[in-house]
Automatic annotation (TrEMBL):
<keyword id="KW-0732">Signal</keyword>
<feature type="signal peptide">
    <location>
        <begin position="1"/>
        <end position="20"/>
    </location>
</feature>
<protein>
    <recommendedName>
        <fullName>Ubiquitin 3 binding protein But2 C-terminal domain-containing protein</fullName>
    </recommendedName>
</protein>
Length: 196
């Protein structure tokens, strides 16, 4: 009976430990990886507001609403690309600017079916953000900004390959006051990998 109790306690401890920190899924990589070429801010509460492109990943929610969302653009994907996957990288603590505030850095990312030709705003992106709920995935940035985490690659989810891929990024639960900021460069930020 004591042995059974010890086994159960060990299993419960492992479960609690696994739930407490982020999970990293390593993979063998023989693919080509490209970084996002543009990031556009979009504002659900100011749907016509359009701002210049940025290099940083930044999403935010407060007052029970998503306040800042983004669209990431990946260009230059060859016509024969297969197995397209979106993910993100973080460098060692001294080579990154990465801040997660609030209770959750869990995001939702989903491909858009196109992209506006003019100004980029929440309203102009909306017609392209449909029929894609089954294609969304949820990278979780929670805890990964901690200085104890070294350089790490994170796999987000698979997307349909195309010469250009547009990904909408927002916090998964807008009722949680939170924000994610990640300066993007050659070692940090969103990427798309593919095989040929």
């Amino acid at each position: 009976m004591v042995r059974l109790a010890q086994t159960l306690f060990s299993l419960l401890s492992l479960s609690a430990l696994a739930a407490a920190g982020p999970i990293h899924y390593p993979r063998a990589d023989n693919s080509t990886k490209i970084r996002t070429s543009e990031m556009h801010y979009i504002y659900p509460n100011a749907p016509t507001l359009s701002k210049p492109t940025t290099s940083a990943l930044y999403v935010e929610a407060y007052s029970n609403k998503s306040q800042v969302e983004q669209v990431a653009i990946f260009r230059g994907i060859p016509a024969n690309a297969k197995s397209c996957t979106v993910g993100w990288s973080q460098a060692d603590k001294n080579d990154r600017v990465f801040i997660v505030k609030g209770d959750s850095g869990h995001t939702t990312m989903r491909p858009l079916i196109g992209f506006p030709s003019g100004e980029v705003s929440y309203e102009s992106v909306a017609p392209f953000d449909r029929d894609n709920e089954d294609q969304q995935f949820g990278p979780d940035f929670t805890f990964w900004d901690d200085a104890s985490y070294a350089a790490t690659e994170h796999v987000g989810g698979g997307v349909k390959c195309s010469s250009e891929v547009y990904i909408k990024v927002l916090l998964r639960d807008p009722t949680v006051q939170a924000s994610v900021f990640l300066e993007q460069d050659s070692k940090n930020g969103l990427w798309l990998s593919y095989t040929t």
